[in-house]
């Protein structure tokens, strides 16, 4: 029976993989948008519920504790923003970038790999950090000054960590993985990376609130 159960599970996974590969070949952008949305949704849930310790259902709280209680409860709007970013704003661009990168070819495999990695780290990585910070801030309703402050907080540290995470991943991806599966590999690595992005974005939002609080108090006193 255990052998039959294992075989059945293997058959299910094999069929799922076959369905995914077929969809990837027939509708590549749509399929990557769906997988991108699923991975960023999962990443934000992990960030909020597992790392930040939020609860899905709010506990009972008095009026004085309402604000703190909201901070400790799952933020569904934040999850929707992250999911929208991963599926709609990022996945099609990642698809296009991998298409462009695949066309970069030189005399031999080594120089081609080096050229692709240099382009990936010097152009794509900083663009993605810029794109995430800008679009997420706009979705959150941040002002231009707040977006500028957010860039100061997270642009260079996030870019550096992105290179550390995706550098080794891209070496393997660009040398061993078939072209049409490379986005899947990046999205798989990106699950962990998006947990970090969700967490650091929320942390920096809190930092901005802390910076703004004394300014608001001073302005109120002046009035």
What would a concise description of this structure say?
This protein has one domain.
Describe this structure in words.
By secondary structure, the chain is mainly alpha-helical. The chain has one domain (2-222). Helix content is 84%, strand content 0%. The protein contains seven helices and no strands. The chain has helices at residues 2-26, 28-51, 66-71, 76-102, 109-139, 144-176, 182-222. Helix 2 (28-51) packs across helix 7. It is globular. It starts with a helix and ends with a helix. Residues 217-221 have low confidence and may be disordered. Belongs to the peroxisomal membrane protein PXMP2/4 family. Keywords: Membrane, Transmembrane, Transmembrane helix. It is a multi-pass membrane protein. It is found in: Membrane. InterPro entries: Mpv17_PMP22.
Give the helices and strands, then pairings.
Layout: H1 2-26, H2 28-51, H3 66-71, H4 76-102, H5 109-139, H6 144-176, H7 182-222
